[in-house]
Amino acid sequence: MWKNLSIGKKYGAGFTVAIALFAVAIVLVFLQLQAAGEDVTRVSETGTTAVDVSDMASLTRSKDIRVADYIENPLQSYVQEFEERRQSFNQLQEEYAGYYEGTEYEETMNTVQDIDSQLNDLFLNKIVGNLSNEDAVEASRARIQTLRGDLIEELETLQTAAESEMDNANSAADNAIQLTLLTLITAGLLALIAGAVTMLLVSRKVRRNMNALVQKADQISEGELYHDNFDYDGNDEIGHLGTSINTMKGNLERLITEISTLSHQVEEQSRELKQSSGEVKEGSEQIASTMQELSSSSEQQASDASNLSEMMTVLSQKVEGANEESSKVSDDAKVVLENSNHGKELMDESVKQMRDIHTVMHQAVERVHRLDKQSGEISKLVQVIRDIADQTNLLALNAAIEAARAGEHGKGFAVVAEEVRKLAEQVSNSVGEITGMVDGIQTESREVSDSLASGYTQVEEGTTQMEETGATFEEIQASIKNIASGIDVISTNLESIEESTSDMNQSIESVASSSEEAAAGVEETTASVEQSHHSIEEVNRRSGELSAMSGRLNSLVAQFQLEDTDADSQEDETDESAYEKEQEDENQEEDDSKEQAS
Question: Where in the numbering of this chain does the HAMP domain appear (predicted)?
Fold first, then answer.
């Protein structure tokens, strides 16, 4: 099956193997990328979990602050704010209760729920509405502070676990991406090696068979027909060509054998005929030789002059047509030159515009890079503000506690501390919003930077290509100018040739007329001699030509070697030498006869 395939299909099979391996590589990479995508999703989920757990800790601290505020100043708004934070905490707790179910942190989550319930119960049932019992309130407050510390500690445990899981997911995603790259590189190399090996094997076999086929063709072209036929097991283009060469070799062998036999027969008969005609020719040659030579020369001169006149007429017509075409080509060349000049101007303008675009894109990329750096500086500044707000919040809390301890003397200080705390919370919330906006700006600036960088690269490539195209247009314009100049020179030369041809044609017609008149006079003078001599002369001439052609045919046939034997070669050389000697003797006798006739 493989041997009967065409050469193109064999190369196609090798290419198909490489394509199949590339397809397998693509499938493997796709599967690896799916696994990496799952790991990235897990990283996102664990990151969200860590943030939400951190929010739960912040809500716990905020509820504790509301408890202290209510003890200092029993306003219903503090109870409402406490209730809002309790509901937010419960919502996050219910959301992640199922997340930790069945894990080692399920007990920790249950502990968080119990502690939060105790804290809420102490405030809502023991403190709210019972401020008159200062000892009970003080005890409840101390208990709430203890529960707050325990609850935050448990939440920090959950946050640490979420961050650890996120790190593991990050590592898994990195490993999956590295494995994907390794798989892609390995599969690509295997496909490349397999395709190269397949192509090399096919090319090697085709080259070996083609060399053998060329060698066989060289042997036939050199006349060595005694070699064996081309042997090839296959039905492709090489097999068809080998079969054709073998068929041609067989046909040549049969043809050369038949031609050699007939040539020897013709040679013998031409010798006998020439000998007989020579004997008859000797009687009439002395009378007709001079007149025949003169008649032949006159007729040949008239015929040549007539043929030359006809050829000059045809040449004149061709030169005239070439001159007209040269004029048309010259006009077309001028139009092409004008178009090339206009195209060069447009190309120069395009190159200039591409350079302007290149400059604008370069400036845009630099500005986006500076914007990205400045966004990073804003992020650092926002983090500093966040730290200051947290520290201010803690200081306000401590100040409120100290004002509560001071009693009546610390109420004014407590009001100031409360305002400072609210301001710190507002700053913290604003910092969170600013952080989100800065992150969004940084993300957008990175995407814009990547897009501009890609566009900048493409603009650079386009600028280079436009400059190369402009240089090519300049070369084309110079070549067209040279062509136009050459066409003008050719047109001028053709006009000169046309004039000279017309003069030559008139002269040749005059010579032909004179030659025809001279030939007519010679023919009238030699009419009587020609009638008796013509037949003998024609037979003698034809027999000589036949003998010469037979000798040349034998020489041509001798170039083909049907058998590789030195004896045959020596015999052919002996026969050829004898034939050449005989021809020389006959030519010498003919020259002697002409001299005697003269």
Answer: 204-257
Question: pLDDT tens-digit profile of 138-189?
Answer: 888 888 889 888 888 888 887 787 777 777 777 777 787 787 788 778 877 8
The Cβ of residue 528 has, within 10 Å, a number of other Cβ atoms equal to 12
Residue 519: which of 292, 352, 204, 180 has the closest Cα? Answer: 292
The whole-angstrom separation of Cα 163 and Cα 47 is 7
Gap between the Cα atoms of 229 and 580, Å rounded? 36
What residues contact 483, with CB distance under 8 A and at least 6 apart? 333
Phi-psi region of 223 (alpha: psi -120 to 50; beta: other; left: phi over 0): left
Per-residue pLDDT of 250-288, as tens digits, reads 777 777 777 777 767 766 776 776 676 666 567 666 756
**CA 566 to mean position of chain CA atoms:** 59
**How far apart, in whole angstroms, are the C-alpha atoms of residue 50 and residue 105?**
14
CA–CA separation, 551 and 272 (whole Å) = 15
* 373 in Cβ contact with 383 (< 8 Å): no
pLDDT of residue 567: 42
Which residues share a beta bridge with 189? none
C-alpha dist (Å) from residue 11 to 200, 206, 305, 372: 10, 10, 63, 52
Task: Identify whether the C-beta of residue 555 lies closer than 8 Å to the C-beta of residue 576.
Answer: yes
Burial classification of residue 154, based on how many CB atoms lie within 10 Å of its CB (0-12 exposed, 13-18 middle, 19 or more buried): buried
Provide φ and ψ at 543, rounded to 5°. -65, -35
Q: How far apart are CA 136 and CA 142, in angstroms?
A: 10
Handedness of CA 88, 93, 94, 96 (dihedral sign): positive
- pLDDT tens digits, one per residue of 33-91: 776 666 666 556 566 776 777 788 888 888 888 888 888 888 888 889 899 988 988 88
3-state secondary structure 364-426: HHHHHHHHHHHHHHHHHHHHHHHHHHHHHHHHHHHHHHHHHHHHHHHHHHHHHHHHHHHHHHH
In single-letter form, the type of residue at position 131 comes to: L
**What angle do helix axes 134-221 and 237-406 make, rounded to 10 degrees?**
170
Residue 56 burial (CB < 10 Å; 0-12/13-18/19+)? Answer: buried
CA nearest neighbour of 82 among 64, 68, 55, 63 = 63
Report the SS3 class of residue 561. strand
Distance, CA of 349 to CA of 560 (rounded, Å): 69
CB contact at 8 A, 120 and 86: yes
Q: With CA atoms as reference, report the closest residue to 61 among 321, 310, 381, 425.
A: 425
Find all residues with CB under 8 Å of 583, minimum gap 6, and list them: 547, 548, 551
